[in-house]
Amino acid sequence: MVLLRGSKTDFVLLDVKPRKLVLDDDERPDAVRGFQDALYAFFRENSVEMVAIKKRIKSGKYAGGSIGFKLEGIAQLYTDCRVVLCHPQTIMASLRRCPTRVPASLPKYQQAAFETAYSVLP
Question: Is 0.70 topped by the overall pTM?
């Protein structure tokens, strides 16, 4: 998870913990509810104003897995702020219009999350 504040021309990358949440067992309802509670608590504790999710391909070679879609669905159901799905081409177009560098301090696994968050900044 990546949190940004500001605009494309003047943003701040917030150093928050945890950087990722884990769903222990996607077949146990109590584990899924626990993930949902942890995710929503993270959003509230960090005063998240918008959630941006990179839209995933539903079929084909690069299709997302069922657990990933479940996690995205949980995030989409959050009602305390706006939740948007961002098409990968839209993200890339935003980066071409207003280029930026991924901060060196950001782990590689968070680069796509950074680009997605950056693409929705005003």
Answer: yes
